[in-house]
Amino acid sequence: MIAGDLSSRSDADLVTLLRNRPDLAHPAPRTVEALAARALSPGSLRRALDGLDRAHLAALEAAIVAADLPPGTETDVVTGRAGSGSGAGRGAPPAARAHGAVTTTEVATLLGCAPTSAEALLADLHTRALILLDGTGVGVPGPLLEVVGPVADLAPTHPDDAEIRRRLHVDLEAAGGTVPVDPPRDDPDDPRRRDATVAPVAPVSPVAPDAAGDADPGARGSRSPSDVRTSHGGESGRGTRSESALAALTDGSPAGAREVLARLTWGPAEGRFDPDGPLGPAVRHLVAHGSLRLHEADPGAVTLPRPVALALRGGRLWQESPIAPPPATPRPVRDLDASAGAQAGDVLTLVEEIATAWGEDPPRALRGGGLSVRDLAATTRLVGLDTPLTALILEVGHAAGLLGRDGGNEPVWAPTKAYDTWLDADDAHRWAVLALAWRDLPRAPGRVGGRGDSGPIKVFTPEVTVGAVLVDLRRRVLSVLADLDPGLGLGEEDVLARLRWASPRLPDGVAEQVVHDTLAEAEVLGVSVGRAIAAPGRALLTTAERDHDADVRALGATLELPDPVDHLYLQADLTAIAPGRLDTRTATFLRLAADLESRGGGATYRFSSASVRRLLDAGWEVDDVLQELTRLSRSGVPQPLEFLVRDAARGYGAARVGSCRSYLRSDDVAALDALLARPEAAPARLRRLAPTVLVSSLAGSQLRTLLRGVDVHAVIEGVDGTVAPDVSAPARALVPRAFRYTPPAPPDVEAVVAALRSSPSDADAGRGAGTAPASGSDPEIVLSRLRQAAAEGTPMRIGVVHAGGQVITHAVRVTHVADGRVGATDLITRRPTSWPISHVTDVSGLHDPRPPVTPPHRPS
Asked: 72-87 burial string, b = 16+ CB within 10 Å, else e?
């Protein structure tokens, strides 16, 4: 039926379907029936369900409950599963109720909304090929039931449901109740309509205030005054009907019966009890009267039957309406774009600091490619962030191609050559590169620091990779903020509630982690401020994703960066205050001359003897340092700072290092004597060549490092005897090969639809409703038909290749399709049998006149 429904759609409708479910176009189906088979495959159905919000998923569940599709009317002799007795009670095979058995009014009643709202939701589901919809009613494809799973926290259908439903009507009628225990049918011969004591009530919808006006006037006019009083008032009427049902079901029951039913009413439908506990008598009484069902395999577990749950719920499926998104309280955020720009500038500073530190002293790469816990901790202290957010900066820098692993014998992590190019670009361009890398990052930096299978999760390891699903979830979280008016933000709990409504099939633990990580990362990167998305963040969701350079330019144009400052305020306590983000020259000088003490709008730097010596190591002279400080300071150079600079320079260079591999010379003979006597200098293997000259087996840079560890501040001496500045080139790594995630290109759905229309099978099938395209031996179609037959329990005719290559036709009822085999019950012999799916050549209805497809003979 799905194939016939798709064949009857217009080209525009098929294009809309493929855009809503792009997996159906990869690879392009050859025929409409192949498209229908793919649309009903479990993988595609799961992806389609994952894309539904709570309202659409609730409408689909309501249609499933209303249809009450049983797995079959005969006993499944292969799996031991019994079919639903309700189907046999109505006298119709299960497949006959798959289409046209449910009305929009029934779905609206279960949803608790106006029929117009239900119609709109069902129309969207039909557009996605998840239900069948025409003038006669709503149909749910059988394969969908195997994928949806538990529906509205109700128990699965059971063969005893029909008898329970009948007894409920009798008990409620005897008690004077007017509670519908199952959705009413439009069929006048349906036993549920004959037994029902009241017509369906269309409650007031939380979406459409005029829902009562949309109800069927004939249905309203047919009610008695007492019925109207019972159902009037929307939610209060529902509560009255639920209380009536609870009172009728627990009349004469032991104490605790009401409590047991109340706990199970809204799910989960299963529970456990202690037979010897205080609720034991009540549970046994409810089981004896059919209000509860004992598990055969576990006598301590009970299930609330579906008809009883519907009665207790007053004929609806959920306590709260699933139609509208959960309410939230947005709050205004002042100076949103300016604050976001300031935070974006801070991110650029963090990347520069990490790149500078790693360029001077690259951390070693682990054998598995990650960064050690010790090096991550050192980087965390450097940037002043917690571990997950430090990992964010590193992962984004790697994804943007700014950080990478070199290819040496002892690999290290270092800035790449692309970092130097990035550093020369303007600030807006540089931030846009980072933001786009984060948006498309298929990795979860928030996992870093947690426990994995092999220990702590480290940066740059495969354990951080999640995949494209994380990219989509990150976009969904940002879209929740983008749906608000500009300048408004939401709390984390409100965002989580909105995401759960937009993606109800997302596990709770995953939703909470994604929301927490995405909001925290967006704040650090300047995408949002105070949980309000800024203009660059909105642009981040709308860029084309195809031309990276064009996206960078478009995104950079939306960023409101403050102008960098080129001055400082020097203070007598040996600190410097930066009144904003420093320009590149000032930041480079200050990074050498002082140590960062605190960040924020006015970062604080502290000068020390060690920091001044870094300047001297880089080749600065004392007078040049003081002159540069004078140029940068708006408050002059305090005298304590000048004294610090001159004192640090006074002992600097008293000893000089050369290569012998290296030598050490000094005019202070006593100092050299003292050095030779110190055990800390033993690793240098120093020996005296002259009263003022010592030589070592270490290289000059290694010797200088060791001497500084024992508080001897030596300098490197050149071949001409002059001091050589320490200006070695920073380490650089190769740009990662796949440093940027590129989402797959969307399919050309118009071309796919045009190819479908030109295929012979589609032309033969015609465009009429209900006409299925011709079948063949396409494995995808065969597998889809087998799954659908197993889900709906319909008798089928299948062709199977047996020994010798001959095709034998069997009339069967398919019971299951799993593990590469199809199980069935032969309708002639009544015996179970199974075959490999690869041996099945064709599947058709039992009364289909088409012969089975015979494969070509292959000589042995």
From this structure: bbbebebeeebbbbbb
